[in-house]
Amino acid sequence: MRELTLNTRFKRALKGESIDMVPVCSVTQTGTVELMEMTGAYWPQANYDAAKMAALALGGYEIAGFENVRCPFCTTVLAETLGCTVDEGSVDIQPYVTDFPCKKKKDVKDISVPDSLLESRLTSVVLDAVEILKERVGEDVPVVAGVVGPAGLASMLAGMRNYLMWFVTNPEVVEELMGTVMEACIEYANGLLERGADAVTLIDSEAGPDIIAPQMFETSVFPLYRKFCKEVKGLKILHMCGDATAVLDPLADSGFEGISIEEKVEVSFAKRIVGDRIRLIGNVSPSDTLLMKGTEEVIIEARACLEDGIDILAPGCGLAPHTPLGNIKALLRARDEYCSL
């Protein structure tokens, strides 16, 4: 096969088409302190300035070796836009929610999607960063943009305690909230694709079986995923932290091209569940391995992923800010060594 561009390889891998080798990408956050030092784009500024966000994202490709670029680096973009109070964090702490608008069930009815959703402080920054990135890398390198999903946003807007309690006592309240925020997810995702993203990653760990029962997922969340996949006009990936095994079967029929899984999911077993309905992305441990171990251990774990049939080799979740650069580069080395055998 003629050597493919990184973007062609990435898109073919997501569609289950023939490729020359497994892509090495990150569909989750890629900002690390080392990359900040080497690019001059530091948190928290790189979360609020489009040029700095793009510069740090480019570092993941140009320096660390990922075969894509990915932004943003935080999960609070839509949460702040829809009413949460956010602390901007620091050089090694991502922005985080400090207060939320839905203290009581009746507050859910006050949540709405603003007409200026794509012009908010944070959405506009990410949209501009995506456009800068596409201009910089052109059509040869995939640009991936992250969007927090309906369950994740609901847990931020209502607080995790209310989210979990209402799911049991008043599931219709959580469903109403998720239904509203899903409209924001769809509009924002389409905006990112229009500005140059080649794929969007819907980050929605709060819908996973580590947080809610699989039956709740299938009843309340799965229909929203089908709606998202129907209305978002581009390649779509779902990222779910924790052990997502119990919901892999319905996820494979949701309409996403790929699912990003943590190391808690056994790749070979997951492949037997999903077959050729969806592609698997991951799942080298970002905390136990990429952060804490050496390059040889990274290579061993990455090679196991490849042997088990992973479709896109990637960290199982977002990188910890102090992840060593050498460990990130080891992912590419593992893939190259595996493919040369």
Automatic annotation (TrEMBL):
Membrane spanning residue stretches: none
Superkingdom field: Archaea
One GO-annotated biological process of the protein: methanogenesis
Cofactor: Zn(2+)
Pfam families: URO-D (PF01208)
Keywords (A to Z) from UniProt: Metal-binding, Methanogenesis, Methyltransferase, Transferase, Zinc
One GO MF term: methyltransferase activity
Domain Uroporphyrinogen decarboxylase (URO-D): 6-338
PANTHER family: METHYLCOBAMIDE:COM METHYLTRANSFERASE MTBA
Name the UniProt record assigns to this protein: Methylcobalamin:coenzyme M methyltransferase
Organism: Methanosarcina mazei Tuc01
